[in-house]
Amino acid sequence: MAKYKTKGLDCWGRAKELRMKYYQDYKEAHDRGALRWEGGAWTFDALPQALEGEVHSLTEEPYGASVGANPEVQVRYQEAAEGKWGCARDLCAYLRNYWGSIVLDEYFFGGKWPKADFIFQNHICCAHAKWLQVAAELEGGDVPFFCFDVGAGAYDKIGERQINYVVEQLYDGIEFLERATGRKVSDEKLIQNVQNTYRSACYWAKTCELNQAIPAPLDEKTMFSLYVLGTLEKSTSAIADFYEKELYPEVKDRVANKIAAVGDEQCRVLGDTQPPWGFLSIFRYLEKYGVVSIASLYTFSLIGWWEIDEQGKIVPYPTLEEQGITIKDRDQALRLLAEGELKGKLMWAPFYGAKYKNDIVTKIAKQWKCDAAILHLNRGCEGTAQHQMELKIALQNMKLPVMTFEGNMADEREFDEARTKRFMDLFLTETLGLKKVAD
Amino acid sequence: MIVAGIDVGGKNVHAIIAKNGTILAKAEAPSGIKKAEAAEQLYEEVLKQAGLKREDVARVVATGSSGQRVTFADGVIPDAAADARGVIKLIPSARTVIDVGAEEGRAIKVSPEGKVLDFAINEKCAAGTGTFVDTMARALEMPVEEMAKLSLQSTRSIPMNAQCAVFGESEVVSLIHQKMPKHDIARAVHDAIAGRISSVARIVGLEDDIVMVGGVAKNVGFVESLRRDIGAGVKVPDDPEYIGALGAAAAAAAGVLEEKVEAKVVEKEVVEEGEA
């Protein structure tokens, strides 16, 4: 008999439906006279989505990850990208999947590659700085391209000057959007989109906060499928409503009724970076030992917004409602958008040094009551893999047992499933002293 | 109680039969491609050596990268766990175990009870493994044993790349063309691998006593290079290549087997894999 009650999420089907609709909408956009744009999961989508009329996006990282979750397709796409340029295997694996997909003229969700009407992107890392520029060339070289810089500093360095730096570029972005599409940016839509962005980002953080409960209401493998919506179109009402009105209340209810993600939870694990998408079964393997991965900076903050409170604790970033703010005009909308993204997205911080990553992740480990950490040394993303060995030391210094395994989020050629499971057996049985609870 | 430990590695399989802590018989054979068959045959051989039948053995525990292939085993333990148990049995003061086998180099921090406290492994890379040593010996056109002894004659250090076995081999060829003495090249090879392995060992922290096991521990030239790189003593037990099998036998004697458990009672929702 399991220790705790468990059941699937009632809103699971809705999450799946939203995701598939997103990719379908992008594909069919032109049939309906809608615009298509390419960008990233970290792009401030509230702005291009504010163009008048129907607009649909394709975000590059979730697309690369979707391909990555299907090893047989992924290798073909990787090899297509490598074959065209001989590009190095240590380049971002998502990027190689994405480029390969264009080279083969295949849309992973069916049909030919759907060419974008414009590209709206930001420079979050060295790969993103060039990713869609090359994509634009592959698509014929005539796709209008706009990219802005967000290298303004970590969350604790964000002041007026840093916000102005980004907002000024967003104004340039509006000029670009209107020139490239011949449509106007609607202030009414922009304000609505920024409000939705806050709802998506803050309610995802509130949902993650609920995972501090024992037993954890969510396991990380399930969370991967939930946060993804925010990486697609967090500025839309449908997705903001999902986070605020469906997921959050349901997870709150699970906590109140002690409904566990894993019925036999006996060990709570902290993760790091993107997982090897084609091999998420490793998370189910952990469950055989009653081990549930419940927290990571990546899962929490890829779309979730957070802040460090006066006691030094990580807490969800306040919603506009909680801040008592009603957005009145374009300028306020842009400033709030920049402020939330730059201050609230703790995922930026590790790009500014190991100190930040260690500080935030050790706080997560404490607050979410983690018993151990399993870190994926991800060869597919240099940005998120930064400082991982220093993080290992920081976690061990707080007496948290840590296991690392090498892999790649979206290149199965760099992941050894059998060996990883051997390491897991060793870590779980020897270092943590656990026994299997299921076969 | 009579127990057996079988260690099926990338290159060789080792088997030990022990009674109340005393080794009755041991044997080694290439593991080849058909690893299950190799293990089976070696087990028969070691039983014969000990004058025993299968039913005389109370428990068999397997380990190694292909330990799961040993169908006649009562249980399987991870290779690092076997190393830890085997080493502590012979050298109770050991706290750091370095095992360099054919396909993997690893460092293990062990407790006085022989538990694995932390580990680090040289993954997905031939540099830092026994296979790398074999490849370099082939490039020097001599057996590994000869290369090992020859390297001890060298008094100078030649920096060499051990980040990649392919580049390493090409460097050895270049050194041969430069007419560098073979003993210096042999030492360069060992120094390079030792550098790689010691950096893996430093991840878990080097605490005395440091013990080296695995097939490469028989390479005196490599052990000397490792001692130099670490700057501390490195102990090597007798028959270091049998430590995994010994640890597996120790686990068998201690009854450290995976407990059989009932299938999970609660039906979980089948979550789609790979939703990104």
Task: Explain this structure.
- The complex is a heterodimer of chains A (439) and B (276).
- With 439 residues, chain A is α/β, with parallel strands linked by helices.
- Chain A has one domain (5-431).
- Chain A has 17 helices and twelve strands.
- In chain A, the strands form four sheets. Chain A has a four-stranded parallel beta sheet with strand order 3-2-4-5, with helices on both faces. A four-stranded parallel beta sheet of chain A has the order 8-7-11-12, with helices on both faces. A two-stranded parallel sheet of chain A has the order 1-6.
- In chain A, β4 (118-123), α5 (128-138) and β5 form a beta-alpha-beta unit.
- In chain A, α2 (60-68) crosses α4, α4 (93-103) runs parallel beside α5 and α6 (160-181) packs across α13.
- Chain A is globular, with a radius of gyration of 21 Å.
- Chain B has helices spanning 35-50, 79-90, 130-139, 144-151, 165-177, 182-204, 220-230, 243-254; strands at residues 2-8, 12-19, 22-30, 59-63, 75-76, 96-100, 105-110, 116-122, 210-213.
- In chain B, α2 (79-90) crosses α8, α3 runs parallel beside α5 (165-177) and α4 (144-151) packs across α6 (182-204).
- Chain B is globular and about 60 Å long.
- Chain B starts with a strand and ends in a 22-residue tail after the last helix.
- At the A-B interface, α1, α2, α8, α16 and β12 of A face α2 and β8 of B.
Short description:
The complex is a heterodimer of chains A (439) and B (276). With 439 residues, chain A is α/β, with parallel strands linked by helices.
Low-confidence stretches of chain A: none
Strand content of chain B: 15-25%
- First-to-last CA distance of chain B: 52 Å
Going by helix content, strand content and strand pairing, the class of chain B is alpha/beta
Q: How would you name the oligomeric state of the polypeptide chains in this document? A: heterodimer
Q: Let me know the number of strands of chain B.
A: 9
Amount of helix of chain B? 25-40%
Helix-and-strand structural type of chain A: alpha/beta
Order of helices and strands of chain B: EEEHEEHEEEHHHHEHH
Q: Calculate the mean pLDDT score of chain B and round it.
A: 86
* Tally of individual helices of chain A: 17
Beta-strand fraction estimate of chain A: 5-15%
Shape of chain B: globular
